[in-house]
Predict the structure.
Amino acid sequence: MSGYELSSRFEASVGSTWSAGHSQIYPELVRLAADGLVEAGEPGPRGRKTYAVTAAGRDAVQAWLADTEPDRTVRDEAALRTFFLWLMTPEAARDHVQDELDAAEQSLDGLRLLAARRRPATPAERSQRIALEAGLRTTQARVGWARWALERLDDQAGRDDHPPG
């Protein structure tokens, strides 16, 4: 595949869990080729290069999967900003959370469309669908959280501070 095709496929397959833009993919392909993990084919029209994984590249991925512990830390700038809602005006705080809701709903719509188009037939496709489901469920939770947060921000009395009744 070309870098453009890889970027598109990457976004459609793991985009819900890991982001990588063209500016990251192209230099990484050059590095992988230099390390012998992928090989570049002959340039095509307009200098288009295609890449294929090598046996060493496949071995490296399998070793990474088997021998390393995943980094489970999450860097979420939107969540960090939410931590500081108290420094915002009430209007700015509400706008921030509304923006988070809008973004999560838009992402969820895209993930649902992607899931509806996929009917896994191979082990690779099944594992990709399982990963997509993680993205769907995480995004659904974010939508629910944003709705909950908006209710709290809209209730100036502080619903959580007073027992019902």
Q: What stands out?
A: DSSP finds six helices and two strands in the chain. Residues 161-165 have pLDDT under 50 and may be disordered. The longest strand covers residues 38-40.
